[in-house]
Amino acid sequence: MTWNQRDLTVKGHLPSSETNRLAALFAAEPAGTAKVAMLHHNVLRGDISARMGLAHWASAQRRLDATGAEVVLCGHDHQEGAGQLPRGTVISTASTLSDRTRGKRPSVFNVVRIDRDAVQVEFWRWDRAADEFRASDSHTFARAGERHGVVGAGHVA
Predict the structure, then answer these.
(1) d(Cα 58, Cα 105) in Å, to the nearest integer?
(2) What is the side-by-side strand order in the sheet with 90-93?
(3) In a 3-state reduction of DSSP, which class is residue 23?
(4) Which domains, ranges and CATH numbers included, belong to the chain?
(5) pLDDT one-digit tens code per residue, 90-149
(6) Higher per-residue confidence, 45 vs 148
(7) What pLDDT, on the 0 to 100 scale, is given for residue 147?
(8) Helix ranges restricted to H, 56-117
(9) Which of 112, 110, 111, 109 is nearest to 89 (CA)?
């Protein structure tokens, strides 16, 4: 943590020992089990900050994509986002439930749904006038799995 809120050098580190451990845990799960990983730092480049949250981000993305995770939940950048890595891993980047959002935008939380064929990331955005969160943008991605060479995401019963 830094006392300088504008410090753009704050980076997370994701050692290969952790992605190897995660891959082993996911490989031991039955086919069809939804495999979700969580880490603090953003895996995809922030749209507003234009920064990556992880040091050696290209390597970290490749290793995360190879773990068998279908979804990675992350944050750090205080801006919501959704995307997909080349082998199909969905990235759900949460905003913040505080007034420290990027660009003075409203707070947003993400709802992630995984069904047999798809992963949906839905943003729920704070509506000040209504004094409540409301469903906003929605992103749907084909569920990764064996067709993409990812371990253990076969058929869901």
Answers:
(1) 28
(2) 36-38, 71-74, 90-93, 81-84
(3) helix
(4) 16-146 (3.60.21.10)
(5) 999 887 776 666 667 888 899 999 998 999 999 999 898 999 999 999 999 998 654 344
(6) 45
(7) 39
(8) 57-65
(9) 112
